[in-house]
């Protein structure tokens, strides 16, 4: 059963500007495992990944109905790409299953998170 859905749309350039103004943004938003994946990427793919993870975590918090900061922090959610490049929520405060999707153009990243319960009502 679906427990929550969250979507987010973000300009990649906005993330670039924030990183240039505040370099700690990367360590604030990404877990160490996510940072390790980020550092294997280069040029546009680097920025797509970083913007995508920020947006995915925003989507996750919207699906939870809390927003970032109130009950869900950036470090509480870890989303790692599997061998095929699919983002998988590997750690979160949600007790059920969390599914993630990310798509991007040259300028935008769009994400969606779907939270599912493991029991029927």
TrEMBL record:
<feature type="binding site">
    <location>
        <position position="8"/>
    </location>
    <ligand>
        <name>Mg(2+)</name>
    </ligand>
</feature>
<dbReference type="InterPro" id="IPR008278">
    <property type="entry name" value="4-PPantetheinyl_Trfase_dom"/>
</dbReference>
<keyword id="KW-0479">Metal-binding</keyword>
<dbReference type="InterPro" id="IPR037143">
    <property type="entry name" value="4-PPantetheinyl_Trfase_dom_sf"/>
</dbReference>
<keyword id="KW-0275">Fatty acid biosynthesis</keyword>
<keyword id="KW-0443">Lipid metabolism</keyword>
<dbReference type="Pfam" id="PF01648">
    <property type="entry name" value="ACPS"/>
</dbReference>
<dbReference type="GO" id="GO:0000287">
    <property type="term" value="F:magnesium ion binding"/>
</dbReference>
<keyword id="KW-0460">Magnesium</keyword>
<comment type="similarity">
    <text>Belongs to the P-Pant transferase superfamily. AcpS family.</text>
</comment>
<dbReference type="InterPro" id="IPR002582">
    <property type="entry name" value="ACPS"/>
</dbReference>
<comment type="function">
    <text>Transfers the 4'-phosphopantetheine moiety from coenzyme A to a Ser of acyl-carrier-protein.</text>
</comment>
<keyword id="KW-0276">Fatty acid metabolism</keyword>
<dbReference type="GO" id="GO:0008897">
    <property type="term" value="F:holo-[acyl-carrier-protein] synthase activity"/>
</dbReference>
<feature type="binding site">
    <location>
        <position position="58"/>
    </location>
    <ligand>
        <name>Mg(2+)</name>
    </ligand>
</feature>
<dbReference type="GO" id="GO:0005737">
    <property type="term" value="C:cytoplasm"/>
</dbReference>
<feature type="domain" description="4'-phosphopantetheinyl transferase">
    <location>
        <begin position="4"/>
        <end position="109"/>
    </location>
</feature>
<protein>
    <recommendedName>
        <fullName>Holo-[acyl-carrier-protein] synthase</fullName>
        <ecNumber>2.7.8.7</ecNumber>
    </recommendedName>
</protein>
<keyword id="KW-0808">Transferase</keyword>
<dbReference type="GO" id="GO:0006633">
    <property type="term" value="P:fatty acid biosynthetic process"/>
</dbReference>
<keyword id="KW-0963">Cytoplasm</keyword>
<dbReference type="InterPro" id="IPR004568">
    <property type="entry name" value="Ppantetheine-prot_Trfase_dom"/>
</dbReference>
<keyword id="KW-0444">Lipid biosynthesis</keyword>
């Amino acid at each position: 059963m679906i427990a929550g859905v969250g979507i987010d749309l973000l300009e990649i350039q906005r993330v670039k500007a924030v990183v240039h103004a505040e370099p700690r943004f990367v360590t604030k938003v990404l877990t160490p495992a996510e940072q390790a994946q980020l550092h294997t990427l280069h040029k546009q793919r680097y920025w797509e990944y970083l913007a995508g993870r920020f947006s995915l975590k925003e989507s996750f918090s919207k699906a939870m109905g809390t927003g970032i900061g109130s009950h869900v922090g950036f470090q509480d959610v870890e989303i790692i790409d599997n061998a095929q490049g699919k983002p998988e929520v590997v750690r979160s405060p949600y007790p059920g299953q969390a599914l993630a999707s990310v798509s991007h153009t040259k300028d935008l990243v769009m994400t969606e998170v779907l939270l599912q319960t493991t029991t029927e009502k």
